[in-house]
Structures are given as C-alpha cells and as structure tokens.
Amino acid sequence: MASTGHHDPEALDDETRWRSAGDRIQTLLDASAGSGTVVHERTQQLAAELTDLYGAALTRIVTITAESAPELVDRFAADELVASLMLVHGLHPHGRERRIEDALDSVRPYLGSHGGDVALLDVVDGADGPVVRLRFAGSCKSCPSSAVTLEFAVEDAVRAAAPEITAIEVVTAEAANSSGLISVDSLMSRVHTKGTHNGAWQPLPEIEDLHPGEVGGFLIAGVPILACRVGDELYAYHDRCGQCHDSMAGAALHRPMGAPVGQAVLRCPRCHAHFDVVHAGTGVNGTHLDPIPLLRRDGVLAVAVHAEATGVM
Questions:
Q1: How far is CA 189 from CA 147, 175, 179, 186, 195, in A?
Q2: Which of 185, 191, 268, 281 is the most exposed place for a label (fewest CB within 10 A)?
Q3: Which positions fall inside the Rieske domain (predicted)?
Q4: CA gap 290, 236 in Å, rounded
C-alpha cells in the first residue's frame, strides 16, 4: 500500500480542494504579474471585488441566522472552511482565546498519543501584536521531533484559528517556574537551518484502511512513511530505524510478553531493534523512531511531512 503524495486537483475531494483554494488563487495572482503591471493590478482588483461581494453576502447570512436560529452560528464556526471565511470578514462568533483553546483540543489526541500535552497560558500584547504563550508537558518537551510537531501540528492549528496573532512563545513545565520563554523560531532552529522549509500537510486517507495490528508503507511528497494501527489508534513514523538507520520496510507489530492490551512494539526486520509505537517510538539505548504528526483535518486524515527530516529516500 503506497501513495505518491501527488494529486490531480480535479480528483480531490471537496474538503481537500477548498483547503488548498487559497494557495491556488495566490498562484494565479502571482502569475498575472508576468502579463504586465496593468493586467496584474486589474486581476488583484477583480479578486478584491469578488472577496467583498461574497463577504457582504456572508455577513447578511450570518446576521439573518443569528436572529432566527442563533445555534446555527456556532455550527458554522465549527466548520473549518466556513470558520476561515468568517474570520476573514470579522464574523466569527467566538473570541480569540476560545478559538485557540478549540484549536489546541484538535491536536491534543495526537500529542496525547505520544505522551504529551499542551496548554494555553495566556495571550499577551507584543510589540507587533498579540502573542500566544503555550506550555508543553510530557514527552512533547523533550521529544527529538518536538520542533516538527510544534510547527506542523500546534502552530498550524493555532494560526488557522487565530490568524491575527503575530507570534507564539513556548514555555516548558520546568521553565514556567523561572519564566524562561522559548520562542518558536528558537525551538525550530534545527529545522529551518537545514535549508528551505518544504514541509506541508498532505492528505493520506488511505491510512484508514489499515487493520488493527497492520503496518503499511506510504510515500508522501517523496518522504517514505511507516504507519500502523494499534486498536483504534493510528500512528505514523518516518521509515527509518532509530538503531541501524535503514528502512523499516517489512516491520511487524508485536505485543511484549505480559504487556497489557494496547501495548505494541515495532521490530526492525534488519537489526531486530524494538520501538514502542504507542509512546513516541522510544527504543533501547536512547534510540527512537521519528514521529510524524497525524491529524484529522475537516474529516480527512493528513500527515505533516518535512522532506529533510529523514535521510531515507
């Protein structure tokens, strides 16, 4: 079972298609610049007129709905696509903190699957605008892949829910006692110093076809991924053994003798190293697998991949 990670826009389901609409619109606007200044300006003006038109219509819809069926406004806000348009036009019914808390709730299942959690400390006024302060707990504060996890899972969710924020600051449980802040840029420096950032969420609905105890390999945007299902939970890792650094293709799940139901280790078929897939891929002698964020976005399972996070090709 594998996926190339490349999709024909015409073949995408509605949720995936509309999620990427903003990028396609921006690409078209950028392309118009090659036709001269006048064409580019008129194209931008056309886009602005269309945005204002649907914004005015959306405003009327929300106003009428709030008067006749106010409970529906909350349902609109719970839909990610509709909520994003409401945010653009200042129509979202929930305040900033509520939106951020809801965003963190959406990523907690992933963080919890690796023994971690995140909490909103507060939102403060920074020099350039609102700054969100978060605290990580559990393995998230020490996991070797926490930088990628933060960038793709937590930061992505928070910025989508509250696009008006200008920065995110993270403080670990220990640092909370000494008020030591770690900026997002500092925390993710090992990711960004490797070159051009080329990570993105990629839809991977095929992963849901995995049966309990099954391990599958996928190729997403050129990145080999190993995924498995333990009970009802799905886990994804870069396809690279933490001990021999070779591909884990052919790996199988095993339940340690005497371990309770729900515990599972993934055994490398080459060096026979064992990794706890339920707890962030930890192994023996300090080895580990590299977890990949796996979240359901608008009903579609997606993984966050960063091509430079693994050397396996």
A1: 8, 19, 21, 5, 11
A2: 185
A3: 201-303
A4: 9
* Burial of residue 13 (number of CB atoms within 10 Å: 0-12, 13-18, 19+): middle
Between 196 and 236, name the one with better pLDDT. Answer: 236
Compute the distance between CA of residue 216 and CA of residue 253 in angstroms, rounded to an integer: 11
Question: Is 24 in contact with 9 (CB distance < 8 Å)?
Answer: yes
Confidence (pTM): 0.55
Q: Which two tokens stand for residue 144?
A: 């070797």
- Give the residue-averaged pLDDT of 190-212: 65
Q: Is the pLDDT of residue 187 over 60?
A: no
Q: Give Cβ neighbours of residue 248 (< 8 Å, ≥ 6 apart).
A: 226, 237, 239, 240, 241, 266, 268, 269, 289
- In sequence order, what are the residues at sequence separation of 6 or more whose Cβ sits closer than 8 angstroms to the Cβ of residue 68? none
Q: Give the C-alpha separation, 170 to 184, whole Å.
A: 7
Neighbouring residues of 149: CB distance < 8 A, sequence distance ≥ 6: 110, 111, 114, 140, 143, 291, 293
Model confidence pLDDT, tens digit, residues 66-96: 999 999 998 988 887 888 888 888 888 888 9
* End-to-end C-alpha distance for the chain, whole angstroms: 17
Element (H, E) at 31: helix 21-32
